[in-house]
Design a protein that fits this description.
By secondary structure, the chain is α+β, with helices and mostly antiparallel strands. Helices cover 24% and strands 39% of the residues.
């Protein structure tokens, strides 16, 4: 698997974050409702399946037509990359690499059959820190349960704050 492609599919961005602002001072943020835990669980399950390169589980979590978007700083400014869910899954079937992506403190919003998870993440490749950023999962429930319609993430290679999860520990290592 090409590492540059992997970096494209590992985590999510300010695009959606910029579109959702906090509640004005004095207003309360509405409760995301009873489905918030389930929605966050789908995002967490996606990252866990990615870390196992479990393409069957990943495929079941992706909605038909799902897309993945990444933004990173390149030599000539910001670079936006897109990949379809199908191409993302195909990319995971090649080289044997140890992937670990972790999320924490997710912000979840649910309205009817549409939901969003905005969460910081860190990504480790072959046991080494690679990058951090923000993952934004957009989920839909088309009657078969929550599925990921899109993932948008940014890639930050320098100046990442320490993860509140601590150093990653993998089973078997």
């Amino acid at each position: 698997m090409r590492p540059s492609f992997l970096f494209r599919v590992s985590g999510v961005v300010a695009l959606v974050a910029a579109c959702s602002s906090p509640a004005p001072s004095g207003e309360t943020i509405p409760d995301p409702g009873p489905e918030a835990g389930e929605v966050a669980g789908v995002a967490q399950g996606f990252l866990e399946a990615l870390s196992r390169t479990d393409t069957a589980t990943l495929a079941s979590l992706l909605a038909p037509g799902a897309m993945i978007y990444s933004v990173r700083e390149g030599d000539e400014g910001p670079a936006l990359a897109t990949v379809s869910g199908g191409d993302f899954l195909a990319s995971l079937g090649g080289e044997d690499q140890d992937l670990l992506e972790r999320m924490w403190e997710p912000v979840v919003k649910v309205e009817g059959r549409v939901a969003m998870v905005w969460t910081p993440y860190d990504f480790h490749l072959n046991g080494e820190f690679s990058h951090c950023g923000i993952d934004v999962f957009t989920l839909v429930d088309g009657g078969e349960g929550w599925q990921v319609a899109s993932i948008t993430y940014n890639v930050v290679r320098e100046g990442c704050p320490p993860s509140p999860l601590g150093s990653p520990i993998r089973s078997g290592t």
